[in-house]
Specification:
This protein is an alpha/beta fold. It is 39% helix and 18% strand. The chain folds into two domains: 214 residues, inorganic pyrophosphatase (n-terminal core), CATH 3.90.1640.10; 125 residues, Diaminopimelate Epimerase, Chain A, domain 1 (Roll), CATH 3.10.310.30.
């Protein structure tokens, strides 16, 4: 596989990796399999090189990802703000995974601007290195960017970066387990976003190193809480709305319903993909109330040539990828967001 990144940037990154003694690794709020996969992979590599390494997430992650190697060592900013503040202050290198701007470290709304954890990172004098695959990275917020929106996942970007740095053979087994977990989850287990040969060349290399895809699949899929399964059934039975005229499915989850099902962070992860299995539906939108943070969050998924990144970016303070995006609204109820969305879809149909 040819070099992915600029040789000068690779040389700078390698020097930073070699000279750093204390490294902080961060990923976006509501961390998913790719956020954990990319950040924990780097944790395993740098720890094996003798670096003092800490992984930090803005808030908690889904229960079905707790099996991942070293996930139990990660710090959650919302639970440990003082410890996180000390780690970032002491770090001489900060690696930031699976996000395109610092506001995605916010546990509240990105419209709040640079606050909380994102402010701690911005104020640090340590070099900040971005490893990401989202559109429109905010280049002025980072010292080095390794951003490739056309790639499947931040985890794949991590693999390519470490390969370009000629450090892949130094990586321990758990590095490859985490990378493949991120690549699998961000492509829906190889269903989308990975239709190019190099993706499967990387998968083949990781499997050749002993990583078991079947076991990873079981670990990801078979550690779900009973309440999550019951919540999914409830959403499909009682909350799923179909709009054939827009080829769109919309689902709302309120805070009251979360309490009813003893909701934990990540319990809605993956739900938004399910309605796409319905014939005639090529766009699924999941609207979730986050009353504690004063926002409503939206997840967008689509199939084929339906662009949800543009919908999220233009109307819902969000963005992401062509077929997978997210957004949020402040000072509106979930019902108001739903009504706004339907109005936008009607206007879209008239064009």
């Amino acid at each position: 596989m040819e070099m992915t990144f600029n040789a000068n940037d690779i040389a700078k990154a390698r020097q930073l990796f070699n000279t750093a003694s204390s490294v902080a690794i961060l990923a976006h709020a509501g961390p998913d399999g790719d956020a954990l996969g990319s950040s924990l992979a780097l944790y395993h590599l740098l720890s094996s090189l003798g670096k003092t390494t800490n992984v930090i997430y803005p808030n908690d992650f889904a229960a079905n990802l707790r099996w991942m190697p070293a996930a139990d060592r990660a710090l959650v900013f919302r639970k440990n703000p003082d410890a996180v503040s000390r780690i970032i202050s002491d770090a001489d290198l900060i690696l930031i995974c699976d996000l395109n701007e610092l506001t995605r470290l916010n546990t509240g709304s990105k419209t709040d601007g640079i606050v909380g954890l994102s402010l701690l990172v911005q104020q640090s004098s340590a070099p900040k290195l971005l490893i990401d695959h989202h559109e429109f990275p905010q280049a002025d917020q980072f010292d080095l960017l390794f951003s490739r929106p056309e790639l499947s996942s931040a985890s794949e970007v991590v693999y390519r970066l470490i390969d370009d740095m000629r450090m892949l053979e130094l990586a321990p087994f758990d590095f490859f387990q985490c990378v493949l977990t991120g690549m699998m989850t961000d492509t829906g287990f190889f269903h989308y976003g990975c239709q190019y040969p190099d993706f499967f060349h990387i998968v083949a290399d990781i499997v050749a190193r002993g990583v078991n895809i079947t076991l990873l699949t079981q670990n990801i899929s078979c550690h779900e809480r009973e309440q999550k399964i019951r919540l999914t059934a409830y959403l499909l039975d009682r909350k799923l709305e179909l709009f054939p005229e827009f080829a769109t499915a919309i689902t709302i989850l309120t805070d009251d319903e979360k309490r009813r099902f003893n909701y934990e962070s990540g319990d809605a992860e993956g739900y938004v993909n399910i309605p796409l299995d319905i014939e005639g539906i090529n766009r699924s939108i999941f609207i979730k109330e986050e009353r504690q943070d004063g926002i409503v969050k939206l997840s967008f998924r689509s199939q084929g040539d339906v662009n949800v990144e543009q919908l999220a970016r233009l109307h819902f303070n969000g963005g992401g990828h062509f077929n997978a995006a997210g957004g949020e609204m402040r000072d509106l109820t979930v019902q108001q967001v739903r009504d706004m969305l339907i109005h936008i879809l009607k206007d879209e149909t008239r064009i």
